[in-house]
Amino acid sequence: MSIFRDQPKAVWATAFACVVGFMSIGLVDPILTSIAEGLRASPAEVSLLFTSYFFVTSLMMLVTGWVSSRLGGRKTVLLGAALIVMFAGLAGTSTSIAQLVGYRAGWGLGNAFFVVTALSVIVATSRGGTMAAILLYEAAMGLGLSAGPLVGAALGAMSWRYPFFGTAALMGVAFVAIALFLPEQPKPKQKISLGAPVAALRDPGLFTTAVGAMFYYYAFFTVLAFAPFVLQMSAHAVGLIYFGWGLLLAVFSVVVAPRLQSRFSAIGLLSVCLVLFAVVLAAMGFASPLGIAAGVVVSGALMGLANTVFTEMALEVSAVQRPVASAAYNCVRWSAGVVAPITAPLLAATFGTEAAFLAAAAATLIAPAFLVARRRTLGRFGVAPEAAEAAPESAPASAPVVLAAVDGTAADARVLEQAIELARTGGSTVAVVHVCEEEILDGDAADATSIEEADAIVARALERLAAAGVEAQGEVVRASAAKTAAAILAIARALPARTLVLGTRHRRDPSNLVHGSVADTIKRSAGPALTVVMVAERETV
Question: 279 in helix, strand or coil?
């Protein structure tokens, strides 16, 4: 795709560093048993690699926003990359499990600074719009999650130290590339205070979402940190198993979850997903190593769905600023990574392997039960998508209304021409709407267009209609990219509009790969009361 080929070197340098950063999540899975043998440590002691890493990461989520809003994107990314290089390299030199755990904590510090800023840096420096940047980030995340276990297995087969040295070397290359090619980034206009993330948890909806996610992530980290000890397989075999896990997690998070979100309520989707996950975990407790391996791979798909739905809820359930809500949510959910890695092997040593997996299954079931019990705090996320889309506060129309959906592309000219023709022949007024799409990522999100850009798109449309002598009104609404079609249809019902005019499916639109075509979804879902008119942009010679 041209959107990938035409990106500046700064974007590729940052995306490569993102791959290395996400690799660190599954990198150590294939070498956990080798570390235990090499350093004469118990499974519980080796699991502290995850505990220390996520303890620091969780706490630093309360601080990274404060730091990045003062240093700026470039300096924060370089700081995180430098810390990863230093502590990953030191981890490879460890002579005791205590040293390795300590260095792994430093690694978590670096990753906290890096990951929290990388998305905004890619968005700020990419060409081809925010969607191109988001796809690059999602591609980097998927590649890192799936490649991490393979790299860990390939290097770990020679020595458990080599994956750490390899990560340090790769991130060192990324650090140099970022330093050379990434220009200085403007600092955010609004700085984040140190106490803002903690204060944000006073919001009932955000608190409910974060605590529910914490219970689910206990099971997530049981699979990630404990399952490798009971697989009883070679480093290469474990690497392949977690490659399958990471691949399914990425695909279901990026491609499958958005399509399901447009059809089902958040609580309904999470409840089904987490109940299935609990069944898988319970079965793993009594399964053979091959059965456990299958459970690990299948759980990746369920985790991908849950991660995306929880993230959308966390970032949209309250009026808290997105960076602050993200920091508060990440702090709480990653705290499960402190508890689960050390608790699971202790339960297994005391009561048997099945106890560790059954405890994870119980935690998984607590998550949807907690959400359902507090669903009143979750607003639109607690009801079906049709009821969840808030209707705009429009006065009842005294004349027939034509709704024109504009998206800032070349197709807008044809959409407005058709709306003008329909308004003139039917004595109608025209309502213009632009959906400012929010792309949901793991623990973060990005707007496909800024509010300023969205306002400008609507303003240009209103100018064109006024010049044609057509009475018109316009507005910008926000919605997750998965629910753009539902948002437009909700506005059509609220006006109410008799006719909806919009562009046809955009060819070569990268968002179609992730969410499907908005035009096709509207055509399927509009119903008989609304006439949908689709127009194609003019062919260019």
Answer: helix
